[in-house]
Amino acid sequence: MEIGGLQKLTLIDYPGRLAATVFLAGCNFRCPFCYNREIVLPEEIKKQPKISEKEFFDFLKERKGLLEGVCLTGGEPTINKDLPDFIEKIKKLGYLVKLDTNGTNPVMMKYLIDNKLIDYVAMDIKAPKEKYGETIGIFNQYKPKSPSIEFDFLSRKILDNVEESIKILKEGRVDFEFRTTVVPKFHKKEDILQIARWIQGAPKYFLQSFRPEKTIDPNLEKIKSYSQKRLLEIQKAIAPFFDTCQIR
To answer: What is the pLDDT of residue 149?
Structure first.
């Protein structure tokens, strides 16, 4: 497992728990507004100092009884085939495990849920269905010149996987939330309304304000986030679709 970073204490990443957050390198998306470029872009990953598994697990052993959970984030953790083994080692130390994911590996997610390896899932919903390919940056990653049949097929495949992950989570066998980072260039009020209609019935949906810092697309570092007033306006419009709908 390639570990690109470790936050030794977080009070916010795992709802209601004292936790550590481990950043797993690598991602199958290239969201322009992502601010974890050092563990997403291959050329940046090479430069990033790594943390060995031994160092990580030694840390967890030292914190037993002090920390309650471990947040697995990235990048995209589910692209790692050895993720179940990695989590099993964490669980054996007595920790709860939260998974942050983009939802593109429903097979892995189902396996982790079936085997009780994860206790909480936070799944990002990047955009309304028709804007998914553009928003996650796969056009720039795979087809830089023009849209094509191949690009459309890839977009559809990704969206199918995302929809399957939504379905799995809505079965309610693990505690979960959906969330969207709201970026002015990519998300208008109607886009968030479309997302809300798509995932309605989920217990929790959170809107996250975009942070214009060290983004994959440097041009986005120059734009302003939505004001709190604007986010509250959007939140009010979608709140009826969910039991809990908040801004982070």
So the answer is: 58
